[in-house]
């Protein structure tokens, strides 16, 4: 089994499955750590559903390293998500919001400090968003906010696939953000798929693993892709093997 400090899975890869089905699938592949997507468990769920979900996670002996990605539109939405990440036992919350909304940034820092949760700004691209002014879509977008708010609880979740789509390589982003990298979503872009298994296309996994080892050694590697459900589990096994091979080649 791959230890949770090494590799995690973003539960969005099993978007069509229940939390219990996700936990069973990752156990079959041999991964014990998740970044938990809100459609699998969120603060909007009933208290009974949350209690059942937490029990299922405990029974599966799984670790929730992070929660998100959470889309925020106003500061008042921040606390429930940070508090929920804390309840999950997560280390961090991944977030998306308009880069010019300093009030949201300030609230994220304040609640992150209060609950002891790191906040990771997630970069996006034209894959999911037509209006790029509403998301962090470039190294410059992220750097501007991190420069304005140099706080240890505020960092970045590098999504390698979205940087590749925007023609800014993850190899440029990793040294740029260094120890402000909270987590990395390992996603690839290939001729076959716009969101593919890490190592299947343009992403140079050995190079990326080496850069992360140098610049952000404690940031979890989170496997992520959005493929048809009938391929999701086989793809996860492939991704894990690709990461093992990349590690052995370092």
Could you explain how this protein is built, in words?
Residues 1-5 have low confidence and may be disordered. The two termini are 20 Å apart. Strands 1-2-3-4-5-6-7-8 form an eight-stranded parallel barrel, surrounded by four helices. Helix 3 (78-88) runs parallel beside helix 4 (102-115), helix 7 runs parallel beside helix 8 (205-215) and helix 8 (205-215) packs across helix 9 (229-248). It is globular. Strand 1, helix 1 and strand 2 form a beta-alpha-beta unit. The protein is 42% helix and 17% strand. The chain has helices at residues 19-29, 47-59, 78-88, 102-115, 139-148, 160-165, 170-177, 205-215, 229-248; strands at 7-10, 33-36, 63-71, 92-96, 118-122, 154-159, 181-186, 221-223. The chain contains nine helices and eight strands. With 250 residues, it is an alpha/beta fold.
């Amino acid at each position: 089994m791959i230890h949770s400090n090494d590799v995690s899975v973003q539960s969005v890869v099993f978007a069509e499955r229940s939390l219990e089905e996700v936990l069973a699938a990752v156990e079959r592949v041999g991964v014990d750590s998740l970044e938990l997507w809100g459609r699998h468990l969120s603060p909007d769920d009933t208290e009974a559903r949350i209690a059942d979900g937490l029990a299922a996670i405990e029974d599966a002996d799984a670790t929730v390293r992070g929660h998100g990605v959470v889309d925020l539109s106003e500061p008042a939405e921040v606390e429930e998500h940070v508090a929920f990440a804390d309840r999950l036992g997560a280390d961090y919350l991944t977030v998306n919001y308009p880069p010019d909304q300093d009030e949201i940034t300030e609230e994220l820092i304040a609640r992150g400090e209060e609950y002891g949760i790191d906040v990771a700004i997630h970069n996006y691209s034209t894959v999911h968003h037509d209006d790029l002014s509403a998301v962090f879509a470039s190294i410059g977008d992220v750097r501007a906010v991190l420069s304005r708010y140099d706080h240890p609880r505020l960092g970045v979740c590098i999504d390698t696939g979205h940087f590749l789509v925007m023609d800014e390589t993850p190899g440029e982003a990793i040294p740029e953000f260094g120890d402000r990298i909270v987590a990395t979503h390992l996603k690839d872009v290939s001729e076959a798929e716009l969101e593919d298994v890490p190592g299947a296309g343009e992403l140079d996994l050995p190079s990326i693993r080496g850069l992360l080892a140098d610049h952000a050694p404690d940031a979890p590697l989170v496997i992520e892709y959005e493929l048809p459900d009938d391929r999701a589990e086989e793809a996860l096994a492939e991704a894990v093997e690709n990461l093992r091979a990349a590690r052995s080649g370092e």
